[in-house]
Amino acid sequence: MVLHNDLKTLAPLKRSETLSLADNLAETLQNIIVRGSLLPGAKLNEHALAQRLEVSRGALREAVRMLERSGMVVIVPNRGVFVRELSVKDALDLFDVRHGIAAVAGRLGAMRATDEQLDELADLHKGMCDACEVRDLSRYFDLNSRFHTLIYETANNPRLADLDNRLSMELHLFRRRNLGNAVMLKASLREHQAIVDSFHVRDPVAAAEAFQKHIQSGRERMLEQLPDTIAAH
Question: Which of the chain's termini has less CB crowding within 10 Å, N or C?
Answer without folding.
Answer: C
